[in-house]
Design brief:
about 200 residues, alpha/beta, 6-stranded mixed β-sheet
Length: about 200
């Protein structure tokens, strides 16, 4: 199962942000913070933008997943997307996509809420895969959400990683296809102590 938890926080007179966390089969595979496109007028505009962005993320990351669930804590925004579900599903080549309300207090939705306030969440009490994070480059995902341009990110290469170094592959892609995946980077691991 492929799940996206999204949230947004409206900041009057300032930039507003979308937080997303993505899980596949219960393991987190992605988290991001990105600026809400355009100029939202209220919280509903922000939540609708968050759901639109979650749909875009699903197109990019849900390879081979048959069931997609997108969660948000705004009942009004979720109802709007439920009405538009048939049109949205046409873009997913026969996949099933559902939009569901979830309270902000639930752990994964709380993560999305924190990310929407630009607080990346690095230590969670849930199973986690290697997480790709765009939290420090909010313009990247905002650009692909708004203009459907190329996106790039680092993907961990398990077979080339060791106890001392982690190997990442630079992925450059559009929503439809991979443009480049041939550059590898070795990054020395640093041990962080929890206090």
């Amino acid at each position: 199962m492929f799940e996206v938890y999204c949230d947004s926080s409206y900041n009057e007179g300032e930039d507003s942000y979308i937080g997303c966390t993505v899980l596949r089969d219960g393991k987190q595979i992605h988290q991001s913070t990105t600026k809400v496109p355009d100029a939202p007028q209220n919280n509903l505009d922000c939540e609708l933008a968050a759901l639109t962005f979650a749909v875009t993320l699903s197109k990019i990351l849900s390879e081979g997943d048959r069931d997609i669930i997108i969660y948000n804590d705004s009942t009004e925004a979720v109802k709007a997307f439920q009405k538009g579900r048939p049109e949205i599903e046409k873009k997913f080549s026969g996949l099933s996509i559902n939009f569901e309300y979830i309270p902000r207090e639930k752990v994964n939705q709380a993560t999305a809420d924190s990310l929407s306030k630009k607080f990346p969440v690095f230590f969670l009490n849930i199973p986690t895969s290697e997480v790709e994070s765009f939290s420090r480059r909010e313009d990247i995902l905002s650009d692909i959400a708004r203009n459907e341009r190329s996106v790039f990110y680092l993907e961990k290469v398990e077979e080339k990683s060791t106890n001392k170094k982690t190997c990442y592959r630079l992925m450059i892609r559009t929503m439809e296809k991979i443009l480049s995946d041939d550059r590898l980077y070795l990054i020395k691991r640093e041990v962080q102590a929890l206090r």
